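INTERNAL AUDIT FORM
Audit reference: QA-55
Scope: verify that the stored structure record matches its stored sequence.
Auditor: D.O.
Record contents follow.
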Amino acid sequence: MNDLISIVMPLFNCAAFVKEALESVVCQTYSNWEMLITDDGSTDSSADIVQCYVEKDKRITLLRSNERFGPATSRNRAIKEARGRYIALLDSDDVWLPEKLKKQLDFMKEKKATLSYTSYEKMDEEGIARGIVQIDETVNYRRLLRSNIIACSSAIYDSKKTGKRYMAEGLSTQEDYTLWLDILRSGNSAYGLNEPLMKYRVRKESVSRNKIRTAKDQWYIYRKKEKMPLLKSIYYFAHYVHKSVRKYSI
């Protein structure tokens, strides 16, 4: 189907939150979707929870792995299997609002967008709201180099326009950032729908909150993935440091 949306979710030991994430997909007002969940060798009951949904809803598929490869490899595996024109990403501890897919798909058609994203609400591990994060209405490659302003669970890209695009593997953080840069490098712009249609869960032990590790990955992306010269890398890294102070202020 032309407007089929493929929802990609990596899964690793997220039993406490994955049911809420799944319910937020099942309750979408837009129903033409498939969901591909890649279990990355979970040792808790995460995969069992997902399997219960698989048995109830044929749109949901669980891809299992006996080893842990990391979120980028898990997402890439699901993207390869995806049948939809539109690729939407959702982390297993985040939550979508019911009209997220419908409103964002309509927005993408209106803007003729290759990549879109939305504003979002931060919440803590108990689900208590911690404020709304507003976003820029548009972003291009050079602007995105300053910092990753696209929340992974808010993003959808049009694979008919880009071909299937994948995340860089081998990073411990920032893997979604490499995907956005890859899409925008060729001159595309991404469009932001400034309506909070996703809830981003800030977890105390989240990998993304390890600032030193994230900063190292950011530098690696500039120098190795984007192959930027030293002075240019320093320029953009300075912007990244400035933006990250506010990003992790919760």
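Auditor finding: record pair retrieved intact. The domain at 5-247 is CATH 3.90.550.10 (Spore Coat Polysaccharide Biosynthesis Protein SpsA; Chain A).
Action required: none
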